[in-house]
Write a structure and sequence with these properties.
Distance between the termini: 94 Å
Number of helices: 10
Largest sheet: 7 strands, mixed
Strand order of the largest sheet: 7-9-10-8-13-14-15
Strand content: 15-25%
Structural class: alpha+beta
Radius of gyration: 43 Å
Order of helices and strands: HEEHHEHEEEHEHEHHEEHEEEHEE
Length: 354
C-alpha cells in the first residue's frame, strides 16, 4: 500500500462487492470535497451515486461508469471524463482484475491540479498495468488468508465438537462406573465415596443424618418360585418405589444382591422413622409382577441416626447392618431405627394377603 500512496494519481481498489479495499493519499488531493467518505469498506457505487445526485460529478456519460461497475467482466475496462463542482476535470478509468476486483484510477486533467503534468499523465497511462497486477496479487493473498481463516474456524469447530463428545463420553463412563446397571441405583463404590465426603453431610444443631439398610425378605424364595428374571424386575421395581417415596436428593445404592442403602441428610430421627415406615408400606402395597404372574414383597429396614460420620464408613454401615438384623429378628416386614444416644424406635406391620 505504501507504493500506491506515493503515486500522484488516485487509485481506489474495490473488492467483488464493489466496496473500498484501499484508496491512496492522492485521492484526497484530487477530490478534496468527497474523499473523506471513501473509507475502507464503503460502498463505492453508493458514494458515486450520491456525488452525481449532489451535482458533484457531471457529464454526458457520468452514469455510464455506474452501469459498467455493476456489469463489468474480466476483460472489460471503461474510461471517461467527469467534471466536478470544483471546476476540475477528472478522468475515471475502471479496470477489472483477473480476480474480479476493480481498480479505479483517477487522473486530474485540469492544469491547476497538484501533480498534473505531461509526465504525470503519461505515467497514468503506464501505471495501471502494474497496479492491476499488484491488485491481483493482493486479492489472491486476501483470498488465501480468508481460506486459511475458514480452515482455522472449521478446525476450531471440529475441536469443539470433539471436546463436547469427549466430555459426554466421560460423563457416560462416569455414570456407568457409578451406577448399578440392573436397577439404576448408584453402586457400592460410589456410595462409599459419598460417605467419605463431609460436604454431603453438613453440620446441624437440631438435626442429624441417617443411614438406612433395606433388604428384601425371603428374596431367594422369589427367585426359586418365579425365576431370576422376576427377581431382577422386582429389584428394579423396588428402586422405583424407593425413589418415589424418598426425596431424590438422598443417595440410594445397591450394595449387592437384594440389599440396598440410603443416606438421609439433615433430618430428624422422627422423620427418618416416618420415611422408612412409608417406604415399607409402599412396598407391601405394590403389586409386583412377572409376565401375567403377580406376587407380593416385603422389606426389612434397619437404620442408624448419627451426627457425625466416622472416619471409616464401614463402622457406620456395620451399625446400620446390626439394626437391619434386629428388624429381621423382630419378624421381618419391619423398621428398626437406632440412635447414638436414644432408645431404638421400631414399627411393624403384618403382610396383607395377596
Amino acid at each position: 500500500m505504501a507504493a500506491i500512496d506515493r503515486l500522484t494519481e488516485g487509485f481506489i481498489l474495490l473488492d467483488t462487492d464493489l466496496r473500498v479495499v484501499h484508496a491512496n493519499i492522492a485521492v484526497k488531493s484530487i477530490l478534496p470535497r468527497l474523499a473523506e467518505d471513501l473509507v475502507d469498506g464503503a460502498d463505492f457505487c453508493d458514494w458515486f451515486r450520491q456525488a452525481i445526485d449532489a451535482k458533484e460529478f457531471t457529464g454526458d456519460r457520468v452514469g455510464d461508469f455506474l452501469c459498467w461497475l455493476q456489469r463489468h467482466d474480466n476483460a472489460s475496462a471503461l474510461e471517461l471524463a467527469v467534471a466536478t463542482k470544483g471546476g476540475r476535470t477528472i478522468r475515471f478509468r475502471g479496470d477489472a482484475t483477473g480476480t474480479r476486483d476493480i481498480m479505479v484510477t483517477l487522473t486530474c486533467l485540469t492544469p491547476t491540479c497538484k501533480g498534473s503534468s505531461a509526465v504525470s499523465n503519461a505515467r497514468a497511462q503506464a501505471v495501471p498495468t502494474d497496479l492491476l497486477r499488484f491488485a491481483e496479487t493482493m486479492t489472491i493473498a486476501r483470498t488465501e488468508v480468508g481460506e486459511a481463516l475458514r480452515r482455522v474456524e472449521q478446525t476450531n469447530l471440529a475441536l469443539a465438537r470433539e471436546v463436547a463428545e469427549r466430555r459426554a463420553l466421560e460423563r457416560e463412563l462416569r455414570r456407568l462406573a457409578d451406577t448399578d446397571d440392573l436397577t439404576g441405583a448408584i453402586n457400592r463404590r460410589r456410595f462409599f465415596e459419598i460417605l467419605r465426603t463431609p460436604e454431603t453431610m453438613p453440620d446441624s444443631e437440631d438435626r442429624g443424618h441417617a443411614l438406612l439398610m433395606i433388604d428384601v425378605d425371603h428374596f431367594k424364595a422369589i427367585n426359586d418360585a418365579y425365576g431370576h428374571q422376576a427377581g431382577d424386575e422386582a429389584l428394579a421395581a423396588l428402586v422405583y418405589l424407593c425413589r418415589r417415596t424418598l426425596p431424590r436428593i438422598y443417595p440410594l445404592a445397591r450394595l449387592g444382591g437384594e440389599e440396598f442403602a440410603a443416606l438421609l441428610t439433615n433430618i430428624s430421627a422422627d422423620a427418618v422413622l416416618e420415611w422408612a415406615e412409608q417406604l415399607r408400606c409402599n412396598v407391601v402395597d405394590h403389586p409386583f409382577r412377572c409376565g401375567d404372574r403377580h406376587f407380593r414383597l416385603t422389606v426389612s429396614i434397619g437404620g442408624v441416626v448419627f451426627k457425625e460420620c466416622p472416619d471409616d464408613p464401614l463402622l457406620l454401615l456395620s451399625r446400620a447392618d446390626q439394626a437391619l438384623y434386629r428388624a429381621k429378628r423382630d419378624g421381618r416386614n419391619c423398621v428398626f431405627i437406632a440412635e447414638d444416644r436414644a432408645a431404638p424406635q421400631t414399627a411393624t406391620a403384618s403382610l396383607p394377603e395377596a
